[in-house]
């Protein structure tokens, strides 16, 4: 099914879209069902869809990794879409970027070295650079096409890419971490939405990969923080519980926060914030 139809963009749950494109294949056999540690977690947001009216398509190409679409909407400004899933709109992006960046940074007493995994639109980078204590920001974005389109079509988000504190690395963030341990005070993962591989496992649901991030954070001084944007309590409660339980085996402090983001599924987004010490992360 074409997600751009008669002047409208429609975001479908990947598992529902696969069923529609395969003439009614059952959900149980869908390759788009989410899995973590071999456990099925259901569809991304099955049984619902979200639409925005398109004023003009500004960019649409396939990168080495994904389908990249930018369009001007009638009510939400320019919209970035990756593999058919809305990543950011000019109207409401701040409500996600500010939460994911500022929760761990304000909880840390003196964040100097920050790592951002993903975040190619530049929004998290913009917010991190607002903290005067931050001396260096390392950003790992695997898809340089996302960075390029953000610079051209999302200037309010991508304004930090020329900042002198930025060290930009175009590649896999998890691979980067294997060779850069003991370097970061705060690690923020701003990866894209669930796109299962052939195995059905999503990279950010693969707890072996998450462990790589956590091992890097655990070797830092006692108040290091790790933050990741993670889904909606209305749609993904079993998945959230699964990820919280896993992180509590490693971190003494694990908190889950949420905020309203109008163009994300169910209108909300969650944030998993972990700390190496027993401190208040979300209450201050």
TrEMBL record:
Cross-referenced Pfam families: Spermine_synt_N, Spermine_synth
PROSITE patterns: PABS_1, PABS_2
Residue ranges annotated for the PABS domain, each copy included: 6-276
Residue ranges of the region described as Disordered: 13-40
Entry keyword set: Polyamine biosynthesis, Transferase
Gene3D superfamilies: Spermidine synthase, tetramerisation domain, Vaccinia Virus protein VP39
Entry's Gene Ontology molecular function annotations: spermidine synthase activity
Single GO biological process annotation from the record: spermidine biosynthetic process
GO CC term (a single one): cytosol
Record keyword Hydrolase present: no
Biased composition (Low complexity): 22-33
InterPro entries listed in its UniProt record: PABS, PABS_CS, SAM-dependent_MTases_sf, Spermi_synthase, Spermidine_synt_N, Spermidine_synt_N_sf
Active site per the UniProt annotation: 190 (proton acceptor)
SUPFAM superfamilies recorded: S-adenosyl-L-methionine-dependent methyltransferases (SSF53335)
Protein's UniProt keywords contain Cell cycle: no
PANTHER family the UniProt entry points to: SPERMIDINE SYNTHASE (PTHR11558:SF11), SPERMIDINE/SPERMINE SYNTHASE (PTHR11558)
NCBIfam families the UniProt entry points to: speE (TIGR00417)
Family that this chain belongs to: Belongs to the spermidine/spermine synthase family.
Protein name: PABS domain-containing protein
Species whose genome carries this gene: Caenorhabditis remanei
Native organism taxonomy: Eukaryota, Metazoa, Ecdysozoa, Nematoda, Chromadorea
